[in-house]
Amino acid sequence: MDCRYFSGEFDPLSNMFPCDIQWKGQTYNSTEAIYQAEKLRFHGYKEDNPHLIKIISSRGDRGGFTAKAIANSVCGKEVGQSWEK
What we know:
Blueprint: E1 21-23, E2 26-28, H1 31-42, H2 50-57, H3 64-83
Antiparallel strand pairs: 1-2
Helix pairs in contact: 1-3, 2-3
């Protein structure tokens, strides 16, 4: 049987997939964590912000879900909406 597609959070093509990845001198646990950290930076959060530090330093099997939850708790939907405009 051929594999025709991947799906779910543990899909290696998912931005939520847990993996160590380097970006701008930091190690993140998923590409989603990078996205969420950059979203906070875009909105003026500095490197010493505790929420940004928590996104960068979070580890575990949750991949990008932890980073997304942190960013949403800090900024709510307002950041996501303005980021996408």
